[in-house]
TrEMBL record:
Domain of life: Archaea
Domain PIN: 12-113
Keyword list, A-Z: Hydrolase, Magnesium, Metal-binding, Nuclease, Toxin, Toxin-antitoxin system
A Pfam family of this chain: PIN_9
Function noted in UniProt: Toxic component of a toxin-antitoxin (TA) system. An RNase.
Lineage: Archaea, Methanobacteriati, Methanobacteriota, Archaeoglobi, Archaeoglobales
Top-rank EC class of the record's enzyme: hydrolase
Residues where Mg(2+) binds: 17, 90
Organism: Archaeoglobus veneficus (strain DSM 11195 / SNP6)
Name of the encoding gene: vapC
Protein name: Ribonuclease VapC
Length: 135
C-alpha cells in the first residue's frame, strides 16, 4: 500500500456501497469530504455497484432516480471502479475490502456484521449526518 507523502502513515482507502452513494444525494451528506477529513485518500467501488446503480437509474422514479444518476456521476469523478469476480454485490464489496485492506463504508446492517466477522473495518453513516469508522 502507498504512503501519504505528507505523513508517514499508510494511505487509507475505502470501498463504498451503493446505499452510501445514494444517501449522499438523498440526505445531502458530504461523505467523501468527511472521509477525506478522516485521512482517506482512495475510494473504490466494485463494478457490480456501478451495474446496480445503472439498474436503479432505469427502474426508480423521481428523487431516487436522480440519486442513482448523481451516484453514477460521483463514482466516475471520485472512485476507482474495480472488476471483482464474485457471486453478488455484497460478496464483491467484502472481497474487495478484504483483499485491498480498505475500510468498507456501508449502512447495510447484515453486510456490516459479515464484514466484522471477516475482520474488515467498517464505516457507516451515523444519524444520517456523519461518517463513523469502527476502529
Amino acid at each position: 500500500m502507498e504512503t501519504d507523502r505528507g505523513r508517514n502513515d499508510k494511505v487509507r482507502c475505502a470501498v463504498i456501497d451503493t446505499n452510501v452513494l445514494m444517501y449522499i444525494f438523498l440526505e445531502k451528506i458530504d461523505v467523501f469530504g468527511q472521509l477525506k477529513d478522516l485521512g482517506f485518500r482512495r475510494f473504490f467501488v466494485p463494478s457490480m455497484v456501478v451495474e446496480e446503480l445503472k439498474r436503479l437509474e432505469v427502474s426508480l422514479t423521481g428523487k431516487e432516480r436522480r440519486a442513482a444518476r448523481f451516484a453514477l456521476n460521483l463514482v466516475e469523478q471520485m472512485c476507482e471502479v474495480v472488476d471483482v469476480d464474485a457471486a453478488g454485490t455484497d460478496v464483491a464489496l467484502l472481497d474487495l475490502a478484504k483483499s485491498s485492506g480498505c475500510v468498507l463504508i456501508t449502512n447495510d446492517k447484515r453486510l456490516k456484521k459479515r464484514a466484522a466477522e471477516m475482520g474488515i473495518t467498517v464505516g457507516y453513516i451515523r444519524e444520517m449526518c456523519r461518517v463513523d469508522v469502527e476502529e
